[in-house]
User: What shape does this take?
Amino acid sequence: IFIFVNEALSVLLRSVHTVIQRTPPQLLREIVLVDDHSSSAELKEHLQSFVDETNAQHGPGFIKVVRHDKQEGLIRSRVSGWRAASAPVVALFDAHVEFNTGWAEPILRRIKEDRTRVVSPSFDNIKYDTFEIEEYPLSAQGFDWELWCRYLNPPKSWWTLRNHTAPIRSPALIGCFVVDRKYFEEIGLLDEGMEIYGGENVELGIRVWQCGGSVEVLPCSRIAHIERAHKPYTENLTAHVRRNALRVAEVWMDSYKSHVYMAWNVPLQNSGIDIGDVSERKALRSRLKCRPFSWFLSNIYPELRSYSDTVAYGVLKNSLRNDLCLDQGPDTDNVPIMYLCHGMTPQNVYFTSSQQLHLGVLSPTIDDDDNKCLVDVNSRPRLLECSYAATKHMKLTWTFAQGGAIQNLESQRCLELVESRQSEFTFQLAIQDCTGQKWTITNILTVLPQ
Assistant: This one.
């Protein structure tokens, strides 16, 4: 099943030609093309004549075309492709891929052994500007707390096998996958309450694992995929991914849902984001008797960092200038600044029960670079890796109560604003004897330590 909207015809045909050429004919019953309301002329007549020629050669209905009369988005398009399919196993793919020799047999064998396996091939890259194929290292597929999917180092259990053909246990899916057609329905297909694009592959991975199935990547099945410079769907993709991520959090993640809200920097209560009705998905979880998210974290994705010690998060403001927020500043400097508030990742602040102030992105896994903490270095504010600063016994603990001072526990000096002609905004950060300046943070999860 290929989903496309305004895909270049040559790229779509490359996907179709290679799946026909590199799949044994007895294993390929049909190809379903889902056109999610393309406006491109070549995807009408030219594509239809190619379909007619191919069906004349391979038999009627070998290629089926499903055309949407309005744009449904990738998620609902995949489900409409599934509805048109009749073969016992379905492969849901982007329409900008190239199949390698022998891609199908290892996957079908794994699903034949256990129909509750959802299997992804291993991906290589097709460079979007030259169309050369670039080999990618073998990876599992996971996600960060915003629920963007990402490649992961395979788990230690896989490396200890010393068998580079062994299936790789994977917490989630990057996007393309193969599944038993009826099992896909039993497990709840994709969440059609999600909008447009993003998060559905992470939701599927979490759901399959928590509800008794498994997800794996097969090293011997290789597909090359174009990572496009521009997605054909909506300009404001981030808003859709955020909304979809909050749906996943509410249905599947129990108390860990706070991590998704924190990562997106939105309040847990009254977020102002309409995620739609999730009652059907919650009923599905209950009907399938699925495990808690804590089980998933312990057993399937122990690499994902937990931030359960966060007591407050959001943007941090000083009452002297309500339009400025604490900001991590240029990446290379390790010097925090005050900057006009925009609420994006560089201004995300997390205050922990161990009285550390983290600034910037939440490191998704234990293998990633560590988070940056605010440290008093010779009475200058600096951002250093938290684990490094703790190991070196640096001054990284702060007392902070909402509407109060931010005071370093060891030096007893405060993070404050001082007037400065050098600064773009007439104020810059300093660590000095406390003068009673007041700071506020957007969201408080638990009462701040006094």
Residues 89 and 181 are 5 Å apart (CA to CA). The first strand starts at residue 2 and ends at 4. The two ends are 57 Å apart (CA to CA).
